[in-house]
Write a structure and sequence with these properties.
Helices cover 28% and strands 30% of the residues. The chain is built from 6 helices and 9 strands. The two termini are 27 Å apart. Strands 1, 2, 3, 4, 5, 6, 7, 8 and 9 form a 9-stranded mixed sheet that branches. With 228 residues, the chain is α+β, with helices and mostly antiparallel strands.
């Protein structure tokens, strides 16, 4: 999800598939939540996902505007105030039932180090798109894998998604590897579908469908659930 509907001039878009993952853990999430009123807190391993807060603006500016993170995403806000506007926009879209955005934090360390996002592609949220951006100091630490498992479970179990899509620029090796690692299936290449720095880039389209998710879940060993 390298493009998103948020634009500062309408209220700078921000989405990403720009990270590296390693390791794998079983994740669990809530199955009953009025997420439109407030997002649940989801936790697995070292990762805690929670709703964004206005106070996260400064840390998101530091984590998501570096050259390595922003290389394959729509230009993120360039100021703390810009991220504050983005965070306010996420609240409105969540309340409307069209979008959810989690801050990525670590156990015992409440500073936001990235985001996971899910947005509706159809009016009933049966088809959705997800994306993520993690600060580069946390690439290769397992943060992505643990967070992705939580968000995927949230999409299928809580929102009720049937098909979950993701897009990654063909040149984005880390993003493509991360999506394949968590079981996303490559379905095709979208030619010249993403404009970045004046150049149209090809994107790979990935998807996880509900049957895939259910089958993978049945094969997982049972681990204690951590939902708040």
């Amino acid at each position: 999800m390298e493009k998103m509907p948020y634009r500062a001039e309408l209220d700078i878009q921000i989405t990403a598939v720009a990270l590296e993952s390693s390791g794998g853990t079983t994740a669990h999430t809530t199955t009953s939540s009025d997420w439109r009123r407030a997002l649940p807190v989801l936790a697995a391993g070292q990762v805690v996902l929670r709703e964004l807060r206005p106070s996260d603006a400064a840390s998101l500016l530091a984590m998501l505007t570096t050259a390595e993170v922003s290389r394959f995403i729509s230009p993120p806000p360039t100021t703390v105030e810009g991220f504050e506007r983005f965070i306010a926009w996420t609240f409105r879209e969540r309340a409307a039932g069209t979008y959810a955005c989690f801050a990525v934090t670590l156990v015992g360390f409440d500073t936001a180090i990235g985001i996971f996002q899910v947005r509706a592609l159809t009016s009933n949220f049966q088809t959705a798109e997800w994306g993520f951006a993690i600060g580069s100091p946390f690439w290769g630490t397992g943060v992505f894998t643990e967070g992705a498992d939580l968000v995927i479970a949230f999409a299928f179990e809580t929102i009720g998604v049937h098909r979950l899509e993701a897009r990654a620029a063909v040149r984005n090796g880390r993003g493509n590897a991360a999506l394949r690692k968590i079981g996303a299936v490559q379905e095709g290449v979208l030619r010249k579908s993403f404009l970045r720095n004046g150049e149209y880039l090809d994107q790979v389209l990935y998807a996880i469908v509900e049957d895939d998710y259910r089958a993978a879940k049945e094969a997982e060993p049972t681990t204690p659930e951590r939902v708040h």
